[in-house]
Design brief:
The chain contains five helices and two strands, in the order βαααααβ. By secondary structure, the protein is mostly helical. The longest helix has 23 residues. The two termini are 15 Å apart.
């Protein structure tokens, strides 16, 4: 089996994403009346999936992250559209916008790993005849 070699760009994006606070405080505090509650719920769930995806790449998983990353970008775009209709402060909107941007940048780096160019054998004898 082959695994994806994490690029420097992926590692940078992973680090930045890991250090960008998730704007999910209303969800975690169960403030269901907050205008962003469902968006925060969706982001929290998505963050768990993205963490697993990125960890898999770092841990040399043998699957292709591109398709999953592509689906998650579509979900983030949907969330961004929902956010536009929310009555929230500019400060809160900026936090969401920043988190969405950083997350999309990470997913774009994950998509680049799916092209096959960056694969190496996961075992030293694999691929030799």
């Amino acid at each position: 089996m082959n695994y994806r070699v994490p690029t420097k760009e992926f590692i940078r994006a992973w680090y930045e994403w890991q250090h960008t606070p998730e704007p999910v405080s209303n969800f975690r505090r169960r403030r269901a009346a907050a205008p962003t509650y469902q968006i925060e719920c969706d982001l929290d769930h998505l963050a768990s999936s993205i963490y697993s995806l990125g960890s898999g790449v770092i841990g040399r998983a043998s699957w292709d992250p591109a398709e999953l990353a592509s689906e998650q970008i579509l979900e983030l775009e949907r969330i961004g559209s929902e956010l536009e209709g929310c009555a929230i402060s500019d400060t809160d909107r900026d936090q969401f916008t920043n988190y969405l941007s950083v997350t999309i940048a990470l997913l774009e780096e994950l998509m680049k790993l799916g092209g096959g160019d960056e694969k190496v054998p996961s075992h030293p004898t694999e691929g030799t005849g």
